[in-house]
Every structure is written in structure tokens, then in C-alpha cells.
């Protein structure tokens, strides 16, 4: 969040004061655009390497998909990790398995570091090894240019794109001197709690990097450089318990259910429709006896129609595009909660989960670079995906520190269903675009 004011300051400092200076800058910009509008010899060589190794890449994807690695299958997640660690070791990376405390109850993550020239740009690559489904029917099954299987596109497809883009960089002599860290998490689909522990490796890597590239399933025409953050809230309401005949009177008051309804309806009337902000009550319990289990999001309730309900509880979520929007929404929600109906009291508690990856000048530059790489390769333009159409992901954790781009992975369909599949022809396009983007980021800090 501290980036934006600094870059705003820089752009103010670069305002040209004389016409000649402005013309000079325009000429420089033109040269820069034409230099990236076509492939350099090194980039052309990477494209040829990637195309020549497509069968190897598909074979690696098959090996990865054939290892069952549902989030809670720790042995499977670590076996996929071993497959990728050996591929990255042979590219000159130092690899290490990061274990998590037993209480977090997850497999851990693979950390791979390629040390390059001091002061050269530092790239962070993000993948994950776990899948939502696993089992016999979830193995790799190829049908011409499509393959089915758990994680085929989400995101073992993206993981092999990382490996083959790096192999292409090395073949073209562009990996020497490059500072690249890769973090493959073992629990993206169901992150271990608390997130402060399970996502520490990602946050640490972001603080040692300049830009992040994430390889969740992609599209030909869109990539994400901003994603909304996600958090949760819990509204608890208490009220005087009395006979229903006296409801709305000074003595009996309005009860907890009317107070909860007032609060939720005021949230909707005052905050709904703000761009990129959503908040949703997921469960609601109210009555004479309420027991709510925050861990399992379930509960029991009992009451009578002739009793003014003394308690209500409502858990919900809150999604936002920036910390400022999150803080402002929370402040307004707290104000609404504080205006109690007679005979009631209420509290709202907020809990952070995923930070936002806000749109920044760095993000705008990233999407422009990816777009120009895609055009130079002949794959057409790429635009920034509307953050409202995508949930939070692992790339979100870099948001407080550096810009990031997501959706660089394989194209497919059916993610998070037992019929997940990948378009094998998309591997060339996505690997070529990732390799050219990485090469250009490494060359032009
Ligand atoms: Zn995923």
C-alpha cells in the first residue's frame, strides 16, 4: 500500500516542462514499443524450444496429474513436490520443502530459489500442487488435444508451464544471472489456518521480490492484475427476553431478530452497489436459545413465537479491492451496528483473510507488458480481467508488497468439478507468453 504514493510522486517528477523534452520522450516511447512489438532472436529461440518440447511437457503434466494430491493427502502433495523439485534442481535452483507446524495440518510448500546478479530484477513465480478432487477416476486421460484429470488445468498445467518457460529461458541463455523465486503451495484449495502461518512463505518471498507471476488457469484474452481481498465478519445481537405481546413497547423493546434485520437491511441500503465491494450474510440464527459453532459454520436454535428473541448471530463475508475500501466499509458497518433499536445491543467483529491485490501503476505496466508479449507472439491482445469476476487466490498475498499478475496458467474448464480438463494446445501459447514476459521483466527492470 505504500507503493502508490511513491509512484505518483515519481510520475509527477517526470512531467516534461518543455516541448522538446516531450517530443524526445515520445520518440523514446516509440522505440520501446517497436522493440517489443516483435520477437528478439532470444525470444524466437525460446518459442522454438517450447514447441520442440511440447511432448515432454505433456508427459510431465501426465506424471503430475497421475499422482493423487488432494489437499489433505500430504504424501501425494509432497510426491508432486519431489517431481517439481528435481526439475528445478536441474535448472540450477536451490529447492527446499517448507514444513508447517502440526497445528496447521497441511503438507507444506516447495520453495525454489535461483540466485542471479545482485541488483537485477527479482521475479516471484506462484503455483500450487494440491487439487480439490483425487482418486481412480481422476487420473490423466487424453482424448486428442484435451486431457481430463484432477489439477490438469487447476493448476498442475500452470506448474508445468512454469518449468518449461524456465527451461526455454535457460536454453536461450537468459536464465544466467536471473533472480527467480518460485513458491508452490500445498494447500491453495483449502489453506491451513491461521493464514498468518500457512501463507508466511508467500509473504516472505514477496518481500524479497519485485514482481509476482501466478499460474492459475488462464484465458487467451484476459489476465488478472487486481483481485479482491476477502474477509469475514460475525454480528452478534442481544436483547431483553419478554412476552411477545409487549413487543415495540418501552419495557419489552424490539428483540434481537428485529435488530439483526435492521442492521442487515441498513448495510444493504447504505453500502450495496459500491464498485468492487460486496458483503454477504451467509447464515442467520435467532431465537431464545442460539448455539453457533464458528469453526464449522453451523448451529442450533430454539424459541417460541410468543417470546421476544433475546439473541441472534449472523456470520458473513466482505470482499474489497483495497485496504482503504475495506477499512471504510467496516467503519460504516460499525456505525450502523451501533444505532440500536430500543432494548437491544449488538456487536460486529471483523476478521482478515485474503488481502486485496489492488490495481497499481505496477499492475498496469505488467498487463501492458503481457499484452505486448502476446501480440509479438501473434496471440492477440490481452486485457485486465474485472476483479469482480474472480475470487481471491494465493497471488493476493503479494498485494501488500508488490504488483502481481495471475491467470498465466493452462486453459481448460471444469475447475473444482470432477470433470476438470485442460486444452493441451494451450500449453504452447501460455508457455511462450510466460517465457517472453519473464525475459522482458528480467531485461528491463
Ligand atoms: Zn488453483
Sheet with the most strands? 6 strands, mixed
Compute the number of structural domains: 3
**What CATH architecture of the largest domain do you see?**
3-Layer(aba) Sandwich
How would you write the strand order of the largest sheet? 1-2-6-3-7-17
In terms of per-residue confidence, which ranges show pLDDT below 50 for 5 or more consecutive residues?
A: 1-35
Strand % is 15-25%
- Computed Rg: 26 Å
Instruction: Determine the CATH superfamily of the largest domain.
Output: Zn peptidases
Q: What is the helix tally? A: 12
Describe this structure as you would to a colleague.
There is one protein chain. The chain contains 12 helices and 19 strands. It folds into 3 domains: 1-35, no CATH class; 38-227 and 357-443, 3-Layer(aba) Sandwich (Aminopeptidase), CATH 3.40.630; 229-354, Alpha-Beta Plaits. The longest helix has 19 residues, at 19-37. It has a 6-stranded mixed beta sheet, with helices on both faces. The model is unreliable at 1-35 (pLDDT under 50). It is of the alpha+beta class. A hairpin with a 2-residue loop joins strand 4 (141-143) and strand 5 (146-148). The two termini are 20 Å apart. The structure holds zinc ion (ZN). Zinc ion is lined by residues 128, 154-155, 188, 216.
Indicate the topology.
Elements: H1 3-13, H2 19-37, H3 41-52, H4 54-65, H5 74-89, E1 94-98, E2 109-114, E3 122-128, E4 141-143, E5 146-148, H6 156-171, E6 179-185, H7 195-198, H8 200-207, E7 211-214, E8 222-223, E9 229-239, H9 255-271, E10 278-281, E11 285-287, E12 289-293, E13 298-302, E14 311-320, H10 323-338, E15 344-354, H11 361-376, E16 383-384, E17 404-405, E18 412-413, E19 421-423, H12 426-443
Parallel strand pairs: 3-6, 3-7, 7-17, 8-16
Antiparallel strand pairs: 1-2, 2-6, 4-5, 5-19, 9-14, 9-15, 10-14, 11-14, 12-13, 18-19
Bound molecules: zinc ion (ZN).
Amino acid at each position: 500500500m505504500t507503493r502508490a504514493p511513491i509512484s505518483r510522486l515519481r510520475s509527477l517528477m517526470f512531467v516534461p516542462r518543455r516541448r522538446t523534452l516531450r517530443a524526445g520522450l515520445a520518440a523514446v516511447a516509440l522505440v520501446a514499443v517497436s522493440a517489443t512489438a516483435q520477437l528478439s532472436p532470444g525470444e524466437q529461440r525460446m518459442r522454438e524450444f517450447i514447441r520442440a518440447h511440447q511432448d515432454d511437457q505433456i508427459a510431465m503434466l501426465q506424471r503430475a496429474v497421475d499422482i493423487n494430491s488432494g489437499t489433505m493427502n500430504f504424501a501425494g502433495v509432497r510426491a508432486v513436490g519431489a517431481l517439481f523439485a528435481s526439475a528445478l534442481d536441474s535448472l540450477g535452483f536451490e529447492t527446499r520443502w517448507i514444513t508447517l507446524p502440526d497445528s496447521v495440518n497441511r503438507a507444506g510448500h516447495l520453495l525454489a530459489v535461483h540466485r542471479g546478479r545482485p541488483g537485477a530484477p527479482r521475479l516471484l513465480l506462484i503455483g500450487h500442487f494440491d487439487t480439490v478432487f483425487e482418486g481412480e477416476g481422476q487420473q490423466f486421460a487424453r482424448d486428442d488435444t484435451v486431457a481430463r484429470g484432477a489439477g490438469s488445468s487447476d493448476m498442475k498445467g500452470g506448474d508445468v508451464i512454469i518449468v518449461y518457460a524456465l527451461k526455454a529461458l535457460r536454453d536461450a541463455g537468459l536464465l544466467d544471472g536471473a533472480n527467480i523465486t518460485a513458491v508452490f503451495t500445498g494447500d491453495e484449495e483449502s489453506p491451513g489456518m491461521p493464514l498468518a502461518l500457512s501463507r508466511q512463505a508467500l509473504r516472505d518471498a514477496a518481500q524479497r521480490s519485485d514482481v509476482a507471476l501466478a499460474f492459475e488457469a488462464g484465458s487467451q484474452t484476459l489476465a488478472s492484475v487486481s483481485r479482491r481481498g476477502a474477509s469475514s465478519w460475525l454480528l452478534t445481537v442481544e436483547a431483553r427476553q419478554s412476552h411477545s405481546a409487549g413487543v415495540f413497547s418501552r419495557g419489552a423493546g424490539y428483540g434481537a431478530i428485529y435488530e439483526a434485520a435492521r442492521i442487515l437491511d441498513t448495510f444493504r441500503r447504505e453500502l450495496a452497489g459500491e464498485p468492487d465491494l460486496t458483503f454477504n450474510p451467509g447464515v442467520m440464527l435467532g431465537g431464545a436459545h442460539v448455539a453457533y459453532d464458528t469453526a464449522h459454520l453451523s448451529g442450533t436454535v430454539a424459541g417460541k413465537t410468543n417470546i421476544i428473541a433475546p439473541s441472534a448471530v449472523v456470520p458473513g463475508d466482505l470482499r474489497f479491492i483495497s485496504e482503504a475500501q475495506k477499512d471504510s466499509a467496516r467503519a460504516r458497518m460499525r456505525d450502523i451496528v451501533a444505532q440500536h433499536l430500543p432494548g437491544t445491543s449488538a456487536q460486529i467483529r471483523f476478521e482478515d483473510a485474503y488481502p486485496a491485490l489492488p490495481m497499481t501503476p505496477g499492475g498496469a505496466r505488467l498487463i501492458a507488458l503481457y499484452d505486448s508479449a502476446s501480440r509479438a507472439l501473434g496471440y492477440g491482445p490481452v486485457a485486465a480481467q474485472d476483479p469482480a469476476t474472480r475470487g481471491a487466490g494465493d497471488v493476493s498475498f503479494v498485494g501488500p508488497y508488490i504488483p502481481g499478475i495471475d491467470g498465466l496458467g493452462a486453459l481448460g474448464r471444469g475447475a473444482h468439478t470432477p470433470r476438470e480438463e485442460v486444452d493441451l494446445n494451450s500449453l504452447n501459447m501460455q508457455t511462450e507468453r510466460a517465457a517472453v514476459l519473464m525475459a522482458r521483466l528480467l531485461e528491463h527492470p
